[in-house]
Amino acid sequence: MDRMLKAARSSGSLNLSNRSLREVPDEVYQILDAVREDEKWWEAAEMQKLILAHNNIEVLKEDVKNLSMLSVLNISHNRLSHLPAAIGDLPMLKSLDVSFNSILCIPEEIGSATALVKLDYSNNLLKDLPNSLGSCLDLSELKASNNSITRLPEDLVNCSKLMKLDMEGNKLAAIPENLLSSWTILSELNASKNLLTSIPESIGTLSRLIRLDFHQNRISSIPSSIMGCCSLKEFYMGNNMLSSLPAEIGALSLLGTLDLHSNQLKEYPVEACKLRLSVLDLSNNALSGLPPQIGTMTTLRKLLLTGNPLRTLRSSLVSGPTPTLLKYLRTRLPDAEGPESATSPMKEDQIAIATREALSSKELSLGGLALTAIPSAVWESGEILKVDLSRNSIQEIPNELSLCTSLESLNGKLSDECIDYLKVGMLISITFEQCCMDSISQADASVLDTHWVLILTNNKIKEWPGAVIQSLSNLSCLKLNNNLLQQIPSDGFRDLSKLKILDLSGNAASFKEHPPLSSLQQLQELYLRRMQLHEVPLDIMSLEQLRILDLGQNSLQTIPEGLLETSLQALRLDGNPLRSIRRAILDRGTKVVLKYLKDKIPEQ
């Protein structure tokens, strides 16, 4: 103990957790009075951090006031039944954790610790919180879960910096309207497992709320003001008494998880099909059917429906994979609302709403609408800086995107394979992923060391995007691998003088007649895998900057001698029926292969 106290006088921090202590040693309260002769008392540091967690301490003495510079006090997981009034004599205290004790009440003096930022009373025996907490104006995080608290003190209205409130597992019957409206920067609210019967209308003032948990209460309705929670990503309402949902819930454009299990819902509103959810739990409700528009919620990874009296869906669909169910529901859509329709009436409404919102935010959000074409709103919406077209089925990028001179970011990420970056006007970033594009007129770009990158991997592009390439004079990376490219024009590479990376792998039809490569004098990496090549294009030897050449999985039987005189650092030849190189040589890497071939030159 002496050694630890000496170290604490040097560092200002003392950790006595997990030591089976029954009481706090007196030396801790008088730590600076116990300076030994071999210590320099003038160099001793005031105690700033004291950890006493996971012991058997029953009393925290009033002497704690001696630690006037204490900023962190953790005495959780002990056997405290009360806190001393002296807790209010710690003017520098910012974090207090007394969770997992048997505390019956918190002294009003806590309000004198006005520097408090984090306060954790969880898992005690509290019946109320002191009004004086309202004096802790810097309070940002308040946890009081798993107690028996029946009300929130009115003075908490003064805690305008509150960001996280956890009241799970108490006996709250209501949350005052004025409290919610005063916590304007609240990001997390957990009031689950209480006795709440309603959600305050003022919930809509919480525009920064990200996570909202009201599960296991007695709530019968969600107010329409919920649409004001525009940052909400997780909403938990399971185990309540909901019989319907407000149409306004469809305005929560960032919502990813919606838990509505074990309620009394008889229908799921069509308006809520606008949501871009990943998880939707509707299990154990009173649903007899589903709107087919749920099938357009292509972002859904998990849709839970068990425990409903569904009459229009086979049990195998209900309990089967979510994508299969969504696909089935899409077949039930009216023709005007099917995924083949780029802008159905419902989608037009959603686009109109998003366009109005973009007037102030400068961000146009059109993700997850099952669009097959980019709507004109993108280039007709004025000074838009960012457009989100993710999770759609867009097949073609129109030339009109060049009108978006103020656009900085266009996100069209649809799944896992990336199509990164194309400059359009002031565009910094466009992302499309496996969007089944069969042609491109203006696509994707980003500035990487003042160069641009165009990646169109894994699509269905047939025609060489010459017009786009011609407009990208600084293009440094072009990836068109795994498409359906037809023959590349003889002048296809003419405008790519600054290109450093070219990947055409998997486009065998594009190289039947080898287009000239000699204009690619800055090329450093060339990928021509699975191109059905029977011979190495001879003009590759003229590419003096070439460092990586991938000719794997072709039909090459020989390697030209001139290739060995280049500056290649990596040569990949796997999967070719080469007669002059044994497999054991190939497996040993580029240096061994090149040395082997060079050694063979005199014999040839």
Automatic annotation (TrEMBL):
SMART domains: LRR_BAC, LRR_TYP. Keywords: Leucine-rich repeat, Repeat. InterPro entries: Leu-rich_rpt, Leu-rich_rpt_typical-subtyp, LRR_dom_sf, LRR_domain-containing. The keyword Repeat applies. This is Plant intracellular Ras-group-related LRR protein 6 isoform X3. The gene is LOC104587164. SUPFAM superfamilies: L domain-like, RNI-like. It comes from Nelumbo nucifera. The keyword tRNA processing does not apply.
